[in-house]
Design brief:
This protein is of the alpha+beta class and 187 residues long. 63% of the residues lie in helices and 18% in strands. The protein has helices at 2-79, 82-100, 105-125; strands at residues 128-131, 144-151, 159-164, 166-169, 172-175, 177-183. The protein has a three-stranded antiparallel β-sheet. The protein has a three-stranded mixed β-sheet with strand order 2-6-3, with no helix packed on it. The chain is elongated, with a radius of gyration of 46 Å. The protein starts with a helix and ends with a strand.
Length: 187
């Protein structure tokens, strides 16, 4: 048994020596690895801080764009009729001149004609078109509003007369034409 102990001792001592060498090597490498890890952690922390700052700037910029867009929409709603109103000022001026110079009916008539031309010009400029159905036109519920129905020689549901013209701006109805329509004759 003693021989076995002696035989194991050289192997154990070799293992112990190898272990001690490995431990010494690890102790020497550990400070280098720790410094390297600390540098990587510091670099990553700097990158995180940079990304957080970029995120905050991005959020602030998005909020500024949203706020500016809301202000632009509010201004557009508030001042959208500005150009149209400036065209109507010309019409108002013409009416005032017509009423101021009431020396003769001809002058008043000329002033009213000029006013109507200016108003029609403003309507044309802003794509305001008349809906003026003629007698015999088929009733279009999208453009016409039947105010009453009368017996007439015409086909049923056709326009007999126009009580008030309608208007369209671009493709949207501002006001339907108010019309009297024909109804079927009672037999």
């Amino acid at each position: 048994m003693q021989q076995e102990n002696q035989t194991e001792n050289p192997i154990e001592s070799q293992q112990d020596q190898a272990f001690e060498q490995d431990a010494a090597a690890l102790e020497r490498e550990e400070p280098v690895a720790a410094e390297s890890l600390e540098a990587q952690v510091a670099a990553l922390e700097a990158k995180v801080a940079e990304l957080q700052t970029a995120l905050l700037y991005g959020k602030a910029e998005t909020e500024n764009i949203r706020r500016r867009a809301q202000e632009d929409v509010a201004a557009a709603h508030k001042y959208s009729v500005g150009k149209f109103a400036s065209e109507l000022l010309i019409v108002k001026d013409c009416l005032e001149m017509a009423l101021k110079d009431n020396s003769s009916i001809e002058n008043i008539k000329m002033g009213v004609d000029m006013t109507l031309r200016n108003l029609c010009g403003a309507f044309d400029k802003f794509q305001v078109k008349e809906i003026d159905p003629q007698a015999g036109d088929k009733l279009d519920p999208h453009k016409h509003q039947a105010m009453s129905a009368v017996e007439a020689e015409q086909e049923a549901n056709t326009v007999v007369s126009v009580m008030q013209k309608g208007y369209v701006i671009a493709d949207r109805i501002l006001r339907p034409a108010m019309v009297v329509v024909a109804k079927a004759k009672a037999e």
